[in-house]
Structures are given as C-alpha cells and as structure tokens.
Automatic annotation (TrEMBL):
Residue sites binding Mg(2+) per the record: S303, D365, D366
Official protein name in the record: Amidophosphoribosyltransferase
GO molecular function, one term: amidophosphoribosyltransferase activity
Gene: purF
Residues annotated as transmembrane: none
Pathway of action: Purine metabolism; IMP biosynthesis via de novo pathway; N(1)-(5-phospho-D-ribosyl)glycinamide from 5-phospho-alpha-D-ribose 1-diphosphate: step 1/2
Organism: Gluconobacter cadivus
Length: 479
C-alpha cells in the first residue's frame, strides 16, 4: 500500500498462529497465516522447533511471497511452530521488526509472536535501556524478550508471567519454548482476539492443538474450534496436555468492537458471534435508522458487503455490486508520485457503470477516517452516471485515535473529529451521510443499547473511553 493509503482508513493489527504436536507444523502455520493475511500484509514469519533446535524464516511481503517456495518450508522442520503476519503499528518496515522474535537465553531459546500494542512500551524500554538491555528492533514486542531475560524467577513460565504483569496494553501473545511448549495469552481485558482449536484425531487423544487470531485460520487447516481464550488467561500446551492459568483474576472483558465492523474476516466467529451476521445486522439497523429513497444499494468492497446485504434486505432496495475490487493490488509498483497516488483508488476499485448509470445510489462502507478515500469513491460513482449518492457508514464516527494496535491517524487528522456531519457530507460530495448510532451498533451485536453492550467492548475510537491506561501518551513518550 502507499503511505497515503495507510492514512485514509484504519489498518489491521497483526495475525498470530501456532500449532503443537502436528506433523508438518510449519506448513500448517503458513496456511493459517494465509487465512489471516487480511490482518497484516507487510511481512510474515515462522519459527519451528524440532525437539532439539529452533528454525526460523521471515521476510517482507505476503505469506505466499515469503513461504511460497517448498525449499523454504523444508528448512522449518518440527511438530510445533508459531507464525505472525505483520502490519506495523510500532516500528518501521524492516526485516529486524518481522516477527516472531527469537532469543537465546541461559535456559534455552524462546520465540514470541504478538498482536496488538503496548501502551507503556516506551516507558519500559527507557527503563530497560538504562539497565543495559540492547534493543535490536523498534517494535514493542521486543520488550517482552528483555523483561523475560531480566526476570529473577526460575522457570520460563514464571518469567513469562512476571513479564506480562509489567506491561499494559491490548495484546494477544503466542510464545514457543523447549520445555513449557506453546504458551498463549490475551491481555487482561481481552481487547485483541485469540482462539483455541484441535486438529483431527483429538477424539482419540492424539490430535494437536492450535492457537489463532481468528477461527477462519482453524477452518483452513481442518481444525475444530474449542473456545476463545479468556481475557487475561494463559494457556500452556505441551506433552502433558493443556492447562489454564489466570494470574490477573477476572477483570471482565472489553473486546474490540471494530473487529466486528471491519477487521475480522466475515467467515470468522469471535466471542461466540459470527462476524458476517453482525455486519448484516448493522446494515439492517442502518436501514431502519437512516432510510432514504434510492434505486440501488452498493457496498464499498469488501467489508461493506454483508452490511449492504442487510441494508438492502431491510429497505427493500435492490443490492448490486456497483463497485468491483481488484484483489491483486498490493504495494504500488510504480514510483508513488502524486499523480499515481491519486490513481490509487482506481487501482483497487472500479465502477460498474451499467449498475450505477442513472441511479440513486446508497453506498455502504465501514468507516470514514480522513475522508480522502471516500471522496474519491464518491467521485468515481458520480462519474459512472449516478444521479444521487447517499453514504451510509456501519460504524459510529471515528473521532479518536486507537492506542491498542490499530493504525489510525492522530485525532487532528480524523474527519469526524474536526467536522460536523453536514461538513463531512459536503467534503466527500454526497447528497446525504449517516452513521449507525451507538445503540444501533450494539443492537446488531445482540444488546439492548450501548449502555448494556459497552461493558463488553472497547469502543474508544468512537467515544474516547480508553479502558487501558495510556502510560506513554500521558508521559509524552513515544515507542
């Protein structure tokens, strides 16, 4: 993606995946990462363990680019492996920042893959550097490596628990060690997702275990979904089976509501809620709340599709694919001059003119961040002959930056933070603009209203209600 693209909409966190006790563990991990490709397209990495030695390979690009060669997979033997898809929320795009990160300790090797963001990583890094720790990357994940190294506890698991008790933030972790095996964890409020699965054969007691960011990664390898890892829970998987630890007690849960709106794949099930159905119901709520006379309902691909289906069904207005997405656009392959950047939307989306010409169009999209992309899409639809364009957004207005692992601009760059609804409509060139209400969003997720649902979700990007302390921001530190 171009730099300008990354500022015009929220971008994914990262994807993590791990398997234990499975032949060809690295091949299955590569497949799992492929299913999680939507969570990060900058880089991918795998670390495997063959019972004696660790093996690793990582690189910049998509999973198929990094692991598409069978000769690479042959260098990753073992029945246990962990993997990571990266979208940079801290640190730049460099191979040294590609996860899983690996380190040799006195007790042996350890690899860690991390999805999310630590809100006190800069504070911790400052203290660790003063102690003599040398950082080799600029990603906040390396903080875990050093906290484990300096811990005074004896066992690896106790060192791990000691480390996670010192960090604040929203994260899911998968760690691989020789003795304790596979360790998975979600942050104490469960903001970021992590699910547990079993491979075929577990009914006879010989099926391996799987940890993944989303259930879609279980589906691709034929694993059965077992359950979501609970907020603050640590699961340890090794030859003795699985055991669960809860060093943080029960602090409730504040799962990221934007997973349902945009980030997760629509065929995933998170926290017991099918993502596709949640998005479809949001579209139904939008149709009830902000009806408008029109001829056709058109999604902005891809996250807008289920919601547009719901909007069309509820409103009785026909659903059509008036915008076609080119799925083969990755990084811009031409020097990103201003002229090429302005063509970026047309490289990713094209208007289906016969569907749009002479029609009153309702466009359904997931969010408006800076508004630049929305304006270009609206212009493209009008150029295809639409007589009216009405924009319907499946999230409340994004008015606040995310500090929990989502790449969003600072608040001064967010259109909804600086414009009224009418000003936003004029700026993006639509005849009308409406966002789903807070109550409508939470009704779509099965709650009576936001007052009931907000106790289960983090919606800080809409409300500014940050459930986890922003330590580095309060201390004016940057990671």
């Amino acid at each position: 993606m171009t730099q300008s693209d990354s500022l015009n909409r929220p971008y994914e966190e990262c994807g993590v995946f791990g398997v234990w006790g499975v032949p060809d563990a690295s091949a299955l991990t590569a497949l799992g990462l492929h299913a999680l490709q939507h969570r990060g397209q900058e880089a991918a990495g795998i670390v495997s363990f063959d019972g004696e030695r660790f093996h690793q390979h990582k690189g910049l690009g998509l999973v198929g680019d990094v692991f598409g060669d069978s000769r690479v997979m042959a260098t990753l033997p073992g029945t246990v492996a962990i993997g990571h898809n990266r979208y940079a929320t801290t640190g730049g795009t460099h191979v040294r920042n590609v996860q899983p990160l690996y380190a040799d300790y006195e007790f042996g090797g350890l690899a860690v893959a991390h999805n999310g963001n630590l809100t006190n990583s800069a504070t911790l890094k400052q203290a660790l550097v003063k102690r003599g720790c040398i950082f080799h990357s600029s990603t906040d994940t390396e903080v875990f490596i050093h906290l484990i190294a300096i811990s005074l506890y004896t066992t690896v698991l106790d060192r791990f628990i000691d480390a996670v008790k010192q960090v604040k933030g929203a994260y899911s972790l998968i760690t691989l060690t020789p003795d304790d095996g596979l360790i998975g964890m979600r942050d104490p409020l469960g903001v970021r997702p992590l699910v547990l699965g079993r491979m075929p054969g577990h009914e006879q007691g010989n099926g391996g275990w799987v940890l993944a960011s989303e259930t879609c990664a279980l589906d691709i390898i034929g694993a059965d979904y077992v359950r979501d890892i609970e907020p603050g829970e640590i699961v340890v998987i090794n030859n003795d089976g699985l055991r669960s630890l809860r060093p943080f007690g029960d602090q409730g849960g504040r799962f990221c509501v934007f997973e349902y709106i945009y980030f997760a794949r629509p065929d995933s099930v998170l926290e017991g809620q099918p993502v596709y159905e949640a998005r479809r119901q949001i579209g139904c709520e939008l149709a009830r709340e902000s009806a408008v006379e029109a001829d056709v309902v058109v999604p902005v691909p891809d996250s807008g599709v289920p919601s547009a289906i719901g909007y069309a069904a509820e409103s009785g207005i026909p659903f059509e694919l008036g915008i076609i997405r080119n799925h083969y656009v990755g990084r811009t392959f031409i020097e990103p001059t201003d002229q090429i950047r302005n063509l970026g939307v047309k490289m990713k989306h094209s208007a289906n003119r016969p569907v749009l010409a002479g029609k009153r169009v309702i466009l359904v999209d997931d969010s408006i961040v800076r508004g630049t992309t929305s304006r270009k899409i609206v212009d493209m639809v009008r150029a295809a002959g639409a007589t009216e364009v009405h924009m319907r957004i499946t999230s409340p207005p994004t008015k606040h930056a995310c500090f929990y692992g989502i790449d969003t601009p600072e608040e001064s760059k967010l259109m909804a933070a600086t414009h009224t609804l009418e000003e936003m409509a004029r700026a993006i060139g639509v005849d009308s603009l409406a966002f789903v209400s807070f109550d409508g969003l939470y009704r779509a997720l099965g709650h009576a209203n936001r007052a009931e649902g907000a106790r289960r979700y983090c919606d800080a990007c809409f409300t500014g209600d940050y459930p986890i302390q922003l330590v580095d921001k309060e201390g004016n530190l940057v990671a």
